[in-house]
Amino acid sequence: MKTKWLMMSSAVFLAALGLATSYMPERVLGMHGTVPDNATLLLVQMMGALYLGFALLNWTARGVLMGGIYARPLALGNFLHFAMVAVMLTRAAIAHGVVQLATSAFVFSVFAIWFGVVLFTHPGKPASNGVSK
């Protein structure tokens, strides 16, 4: 399984999220139905820094063979992050009935499933070009 698109798309998604939460935390919180206060703004900005770090990690590892035992820490970290955030956002969306939370939960769930498939499957043999050895 080729994982380049997964790593690139997750890097772009996390970078966009990281930039938004680092530089516009009030707007992000307001979109999701939360009234911003000083402590919450600081935590959201810190989360943005983490997302930017994860984005950089995923972007630089976009050409790495992943799956099974290959790059397992990278796949496991991404899977755990996306799965846990998806669960938290789903619970919040159900409890508060905010559509933006449900949309965010869906996006995180897609990445969680994709990284789960990568984590728990073998990358397979490279495609043959028809030339026998």
Summarize the structure.
The protein has 133 residues and is mostly helical. The chain is built from five helices and no strands.
Description of the structure:
With 133 residues, this protein is mainly α. It has one domain. Helices cover 72% and strands 0% of the residues. It has helices spanning 4-23, 25-31, 38-60, 72-96, 99-119.
Q: How many domains comprise the coordinates?
A: 1
CA distance, first residue to last residue: 23 Å
How is the biggest beta sheet arranged?
A: none
Shape: globular
Q: Total number of β-strand segments?
A: 0
| Percent of residues in beta strands | under 5%
Q: Layout of SSEs?
A:
Blueprint: H1 4-23, H2 25-31, H3 38-60, H4 72-96, H5 99-119
Helix pairs in contact: 1-2, 1-3, 4-5
Attribute tags:
133 residues; globular
